[in-house]
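pinned: reference chain
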Amino acid sequence: MDTKAEYIADMGRKLMRILNKRARLEALRIRFDDGVELNPREIHTIQAIGEHRPINVTELAAYFGVTKSAASQIVSKLAEKGFVEKQHTANNNKELDLSLTELGWRAFQAHERFHGKHFAELVNRLGAFSLAQIATASVILDVIEDIVEERLDLLSKK
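pinned: its structure tokens
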């Protein structure tokens, strides 16, 4: 590869492969406690609620970059399964504050243990890169996200 355009095209192909593999991961069920299984979307929603208390459905949707309807659906599923509680906020009857139940906290802690091992491995493998290189990669991902958001906006208006 000799040009920026070739490197950018290569990055696009790699990102597509990563996203396809991530989609495969999303379909898997993770057992965390005596027969209790969750998919990654569910456990990451539990993680977000546990880490960002108080949080409501609108904030959760923005956090994940999904619609409020999509966030509401996953929250409803988790509430039905006994992981999440929904309570009306003190100053807005239309908005719901989300919190974890005891079962939700057990799932949160199990995920923290699981995620901690994998994050440590990621930090270890990326440890050879300088802070500037890591920061550049982060900015590149921001640009890619902006472009994807622009495409979503354009295509959803048609």
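why pinned: The radius of gyration is 19 Å. The chain has six helices and five strands.
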